[in-house]
Amino acid sequence: MGGDYAVIALYIAGMLGVGWIGLRLAKTKSDYLVAGRRLGWFLYSGTMSAVVLGGASTVGGVKLGYTYGVSGAWLVITIGVGILVLHAVFARRLVKLRVYTVGEMLDLRYGGRASAVSGVVMWGYTLMLTVTSTLAFASIFKVLFAIPSWAGIAIGGSIVVLYSVLGGMWSITLTDIAQFVIKTVGILFVLLPIALVSAGGFGGMAEKLDASYFEFSSIGGETILTYFLIYTFGLLIGQDIWQRVFTARTPRIATGGGIISGVYCLVYGVAGALIGTAAKVLYPDLGSAQDAFATIAERLLPTGVRGLVLAAALSALMSTSSGALIACATTTTSDLLRKVGLKGGEVLRNRVTTLVLGVVAIGIAMMVDDVVNALTIAYDILVGGLLVTIVGALLWKRGTRQGAYASMVAGTASVIAFMIIDGVAANSPIYWGLGASLIVYVAVSLATPRTPESILTVWTQRLHGSAEIPEVIPTRQELPR
């Protein structure tokens, strides 16, 4: 595997080199957190695709293909649908707001300190999302170096933390573009066709597998619905996704580039499921479906090419991991630490926060053993706790600050409670969480006074890009009467 090692070494060196370039570009808070809000079509579309297609979409997507066949594509398809809806309906408004976090948007819309509550929920989501991609490093490095899972997690996670700390969103943007190109070539143009041909094409696979492997509904209608609830809605409101939207130079770039990214996600989802299906034909007795991707790459591809495909997998993991990490750091500094009065030295504080959270994520990843379950925890908490409050902020003027607070608490508590009662992999937590959040939001909002007109006026002005943009979102008390 000498050739593979050389390819991987070049890839890692390139990522660290780009991180160093990002260090020179990240001079201000805006540079570090949202790449100066200067990305054009290609950079925006590539980085958006890179951040949403990570470990769960690549290693997890192939795992689902190995288990369910083409129906395993639904997880990534629902992610693509979420990206399409976000950019077709909401992206223009989000760019005009010129905020840094979801919590800042809620403060602006509801007044008061909504970000203090939403920040805790978003912090948990972004941290667990970082963990899912960091966890998936284990399967790749196990194939490369035959090392324990914890060592693979430590190696991959440390690389991501290093370049993320150095240049923030600029480093992540530049590395994401390289990663986007590598995984497009490695997954779509190398591994997919070789896997299909080796498995005998569609005809050969159909002869060796049960017919259910070629039915798009075989994973189960309830599971497909749950994927839509968790991932499509989750993509509409996640800090890691919004933070990429904020990097667009104009609303038009955000909309067009995002739609291109959404279509790419749909193609990627089908490709991953087909690779997994081919792996089932070629290696039907794997001890764990989680190893399907690494196994088919290690056994099927020649040296050098194998290194490229494994680099593609690392690209997918690193792009999502770094995007989630910077989102977690941004939520921590902008929505949580600011509330306790920490100000000044923002670039340095964000770097230190990114470093600390990266180390925490690596530690948690060493204790979790299933990438899809870890992702489910993250999205259940996000959607159950925040979806109703965020969509209500954008679409329902009658929603109030008290309704937002109560909805976030009720939804999050319900999700956690039913994870404990029914298990992490159960569908019930998201249903109960969304139901409780919606009922409480509507009931409390209708039972409390309307949001003051002064707050709604500032909100409307910002949505239309006609208000002066302050550095810090004002509190309810600071807004004009």
UniProtKB/TrEMBL annotation:
Alphabetical list of PROSITE patterns matching this protein: NA_SOLUT_SYMP_2 (PS00457), NA_SOLUT_SYMP_3 (PS50283)
InterPro entries in the cross-refs: Na/Glc_symporter_sf, Na/solute_symporter, Na/solute_symporter_CS, Sodium:Solute_Symporter
Domain of life: Bacteria
Transmembrane regions: 6-26, 38-60, 72-95, 116-141, 147-168, 180-204, 224-242, 254-275, 308-331, 352-368, 374-396, 403-424, 430-448
Record membrane topology: Multi-pass membrane protein
Gene3D superfamilies: Sodium/glucose cotransporter
Localisation: Membrane
Subcellular location, principal: membrane
Keyword terms of this UniProt record: Cell membrane, Membrane, Transmembrane, Transmembrane helix, Transport
Pfam families from the UniProt entry: SSF
Keyword GTP-binding: no
Family recorded in the similarity comment: Belongs to the sodium:solute symporter (SSF) (TC 2.A.21) family.
Name of the protein in its database record: Sodium:solute symporter
Organism: Amycolatopsis ultiminotia
Lineage, broadest ranks: Bacteria, Bacillati, Actinomycetota, Actinomycetes, Pseudonocardiales
